[in-house]
Batch of 2 targets.
Target 1
Amino acid sequence: MNKKITIGLVVVLSLMLTVGAVKAIDVSLSVDELRQLVGMQGGPGELGGSTSDNWTVGGNLAVTGTSAFTGATTVAGALAVTGATTLTGDVTMTGALAGYKEETERVSSDNTLTSAESGLTTYIITTGSTSTLPAVSTATGTIYRFQVAAAFGTRNFGIDSAEGDNIEGSLIVAGAVVDCDAEDQINFIVDGENIGDYVEVVSDGQQWMIRDSGALTSAKMTCTDPS
């Protein structure tokens, strides 16, 4: 979109906002164009590395560059985002979420998770390694899933709390409930692991809560407190 067209769009938008003639429009702009449009309009603020106030789009919105929306955002039409987008305010979507893909990682060595990796599914493909959860007090609302994706070798796979004594809840192992009370670790036990066995944990800011789990063979997923 060139500057002349952008100016024309600003005029049209201004008229629409003034007379209330049209409630919804389709907008397809690059972040630079949208930043320019907002700046010329004297509207909510900037997009793309800066901040913004609340945004409401009644039609379609396409963002093709890096953007940051820090206020409440409502998009009633189709939302297409091809760049990195950070949403720190409330988001309301009235359409379907299409093309969503879960973040995954296949682990074969020790690793320490970060809060930025919340939502990650770790596929366990080797034995003898440990994934350490972030400090629970800095990870409120973060969630991680661990799932067996290959047969182990000769050692267990462990999920460790950074502080210890704060894994709570229960595991479902061979249909039985295994209580986890102020534990340090969750372990997948070698020679009994089944591809598809899994556990999911979430932080409430004070402890790691087991949200979901399932293991095929008795005693092959455990909670322990080595200390």
Note: The radius of gyration is 24 Å.
Target 2
Amino acid sequence: MAHHIAVVGGGWAGLAAAVRAVGLGHRVTLYEMAPQLGGRARSLAGDGITLDNGQHILIGAYTETLALMRMLGVDPAQVLLRAPLALRYPDGSGLALPGGPPMISFLRGVAACGGWPWPARLALLREAARWAARGFRCDAAWTVGRLCARLPAAVRQDLIEPLCVAALNTPAAEASASVFLRVLRDALFSGPGSADLLLPRHGLDALLPEPAARWLALNHVEVRLGRRAGALQARPGGWRLDGEAFDAVLLACSAAEAARLAAPIAPDWSTQAAALDYEPIITLYLRCPGARLPLPMMALREGPDAPAQFVFDLGAIGGAAGVFALVVSGARDWVRAGLDATGRAALAQVVAAFPAGTWPTAPTLLRVLAEKRATFRCTPGLRRPPAAIAPGLAAAGDYIQGPYPATLEGAVRSGRQAADLLG
């Protein structure tokens, strides 16, 4: 039966939900409180250059996100630069996986990792074999630090910690080992190319928000930008959103907004959603004309005076030449220190990390962006709210119960699943 569904939120979860609901034959009205679609993964214009509100990446295991892009007429090969997973540091050390079957690729990559002595490489292979033998499962109370305690310090510092903070945006000492293992299983061992890095060649808007907006317009979806949903009330056979009648409502907004709207209807669900703790991400864009890095994405060693874990050469991906993005995940302490202090430290870090001559002139900051609620803190035993709230009322978002941390793939999957619940 066709319904009139209100989708509240125009981020990647809301867009995925709206597209899925239309595909199920429903009439959809989409509310977005911001003046543009995309949520926390969108493009920002300014300073004569288009930058994103965060340096997001995808991986080959993001099957539903890639499928949605294709459905919307986007060719991932055109908008994403695909490359085998490589966590290379400026000194040339680090892990790089060659192509081929996942297990063989992992074995070859670890064996070729010259930055670690052979005992460290063998220790990683033994530990990975144990994880695989246990089905990539562990005690739900374990942290990633506990899971990897037997690994040599070099492996933890150069591989586990940057992978953990990149995937879960939570420091390894506090992050959920169960979720981390699920990410490793799907990324490194689920099929050829699953661990490949997919780096956006264009602004994030070109990946999903703009194609989705065109598709929704062609399918007669009313998109109400700059419209914050005010009040949700139950009515016989459906709901009223700001006085307008709908058969069903899908809350694809932030957890805080969803908790506010659901509070009068489902206080327990609302309390659970509102209780989530968050971890910031800081993205620093800098300019240095004539500079190029050895790889489009490189790892950096963080420390007390070195905030960033990764640097991206946007010119090597397809963006503006001489523009670079530094990413500080798990950035709670650096947000407290202030963005000015973070910027100074990151500039000093990136100059010191690379050989002399990498930077023809001193890099300068273009923009510093802090997403203070970038993702929920993915800690052991975390209780995330379910998608189902009440009959005809569901929620979608990267914070909803699911196997993944807060990622674009988690958002897209949750949107599709919530639409199915209402269908």
Note: Residues 278-376 form one domain.
